[in-house]
């Protein structure tokens, strides 16, 4: 029986070793295919630390592979199976179902992935960042799925207000543990991702930071600038990373759009108009005032990110109009208008209202147009009076985009840095200040 398996095998750990051991047991000849940098880039795998040569050496040194080949392109698996006369394709259960199509060519076996890859000793020396998830809702589920595309991180545990929910979440995602208490989660991880309702972020973040645990916190990090300031101060004093998870900020296309706009190619920026609306998901929390619901708290982080990145913090005036239905506790459609010394900006958000979700940056020489959904920036155009000068820019935005924030968070920790130019602490604070005043000072219509 000839067996084949594929992987990056970066920072070779127990999970990799156990996978190879079990794959080898399935037959008598094991071929291990190691991904090239280009292929990892094409399939959206981020933060691979070691070179291809080193990763091949990892596999060879394990003594488990009878043959090592490289994986260079999409569709290669089918060719390999035929070329090498493969009987069994084996892969970890984090890919469950994804390779069923190979059943037409050989037997497909999903081997249970190893839960938790680091030692249980006090010091974590594996080089893998252990992440605990706080909250077990939709976004937390997507976060775990996306984390498989970031090398050097492992989601090890989960805590949720209801223990049964946490246990189910841990089982669904093959996590090492579900914790009955928040402190229990903090005991066994290096960092947490907070994905609970907004009004609970502050307390969870504070308790983690006080324990020296790095924090990636869903947006909006808090609903008051004072709370956000206090958290950043605490994080800096405790030398831990605190990053607000506004995924757009970390995606390659958005960063490039900001760079092009600020490079002067469209002249001086005079206005930024950004819209983010969505039809409600039926999640009652979004419309619950006591849980910080409303279109501004739910969605304004994105348009305000674009505005803050492009125009900075020195706005001189802010006016907000919000629609609140008679029977609603919260506003569900808003426009936040900002005045800057030489520019104006407008952010529109809507829950249960649908508008074109585009972004337009107007300048004295031309403008930038990012079509909907601009917050998942894959494409934008710089447009000019003379249309022959127009330029189109294409980027990748892989999966749900959460992998970009996970990659940045883990590389900040690795580099020992607190602040990233992709989303500075000061920019998070500006966004928090605008959200706070927009929510409190809005002129309501109904
Ligand atoms: N693995 C595991 N347990 C872990 C981590 C990884 O069993 N805790 C398994 C993965 O499921 C995979 C192998 O180890 O089968 C290699 O993992 P990676 O190096 O992360 O590579 P991956 O991105 O899973 O590549 O074509 C490439 C393949 O599709 C998968």
Write the layout of secondary structure elements.
Layout: E1 2-7, H1 14-25, E2 29-35, H2 37-42, H3 52-61, E3 67-71, H4 76-83, E4 88-92, E5 107-111, E6 129-134, H5 138-147, E7 153-159, H6 163-172, E8 177-179, H7 182-187, E9 191-194, H8 201-210, E10 214-218, H9 225-237, E11 242-245, H10 252-262, E12 269-278, H11 295-299, H12 301-311, E13 317-323, E14 333-340, E15 343-351, E16 359-363, E17 366-370, E18 379-384, E19 391-394, H13 402-415, H14 425-441, E20 443-445
Parallel strand pairs: 1-2, 1-4, 2-3, 4-5, 6-7, 6-9, 7-8, 9-10, 10-11, 12-15, 13-20
Antiparallel strand pairs: 12-16, 13-14, 14-15, 16-17, 17-18, 18-19
Helix pairs in contact: 8-9, 9-14, 12-14
Bound molecules: [cytidine-5'-phosphate] glycerylphosphoric acid ester.
């Amino acid at each position: 029986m000839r067996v084949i398996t594929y992987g990056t095998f970066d920072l070779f750990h127990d999970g990799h070793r156990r996978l190879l051991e079990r794959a080898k047991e399935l037959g008598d000849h094991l071929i291990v295919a190691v991904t090239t940098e280009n292929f990892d880039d094409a399939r959206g795998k981020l933060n691979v630390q070691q070179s291809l040569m080193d990763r091949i050496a990892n596999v060879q040194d394990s003594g488990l592979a009878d043959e090592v080949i490289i994986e260079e392109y999409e569709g290669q698996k089918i060719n390999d199976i035929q070329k090498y006369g493969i009987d069994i394709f084996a892969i970890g259960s984090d890919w469950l179902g994804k390779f069923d199509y190979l059943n037409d060519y050989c037997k497909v076996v999903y081997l249970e992935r190893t839960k938790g890859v680091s030692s249980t000793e006090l010091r974590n020396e594996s080089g893998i960042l252990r992440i605990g998830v706080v909250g077990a809702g939709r976004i937390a589920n997507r976060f775990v799925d996306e984390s498989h595309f970031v090398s050097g991180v492992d989601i090890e545990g989960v805590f949720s207000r209801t223990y049964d929910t946490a246990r189910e979440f841990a089982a669904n995602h093959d996590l090492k543990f579900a914790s009955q208490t928040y402190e229990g989660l903090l005991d066994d991880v290096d960092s947490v991702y907070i994905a609970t309702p907004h009004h609970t972020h502050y307390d969870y973040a504070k308790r983690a930071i006080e324990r020296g645990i790095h924090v990636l916190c869903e947006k909006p990090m808090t609903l008051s600038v004072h709370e956000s300031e206090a958290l950043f101060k605490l994080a800096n004093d405790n030398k831990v990373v605190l990053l607000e998870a506004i995924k757009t900020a970390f995606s390659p296309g958005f960063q490039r759009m900001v760079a092009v706009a600020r490079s002067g190619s469209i002249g001086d920026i005079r206005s930024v108009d950004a819209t983010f609306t969505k039809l409600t998901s039926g999640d009652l929390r979004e419309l619950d005032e006591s849980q910080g619901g409303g279109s501004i708290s739910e969605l304004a982080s994105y348009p305000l990110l674009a505005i803050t990145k492009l125009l900075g913090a020195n706005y001189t005036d802010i006016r907000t109009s919000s629609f609140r239905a008679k029977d609603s506790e919260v506003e569900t459609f808003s426009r936040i208008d900002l005045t800057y010394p030489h520019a104006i900006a407008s952010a529109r958000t809507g829950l249960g209202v649908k508008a074109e979700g585009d972004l337009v940056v107007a300048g004295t020489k031309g403008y930038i147009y990012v079509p909907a959904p601009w917050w998942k920036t894959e494409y934008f155009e710089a447009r000019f009076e003379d249309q022959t000068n127009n330029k189109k820019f294409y980027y990748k935005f892989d999966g749900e985009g959460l992998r970009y924030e996970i990659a940045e968070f883990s590389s900040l920790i690795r580099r020992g840095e607190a602040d990233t130019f992709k989303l500075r602490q000061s920019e998070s604070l500006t966004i928090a200040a605008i959200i706070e005043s927009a929510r409190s000072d809005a002129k309501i219509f109904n």
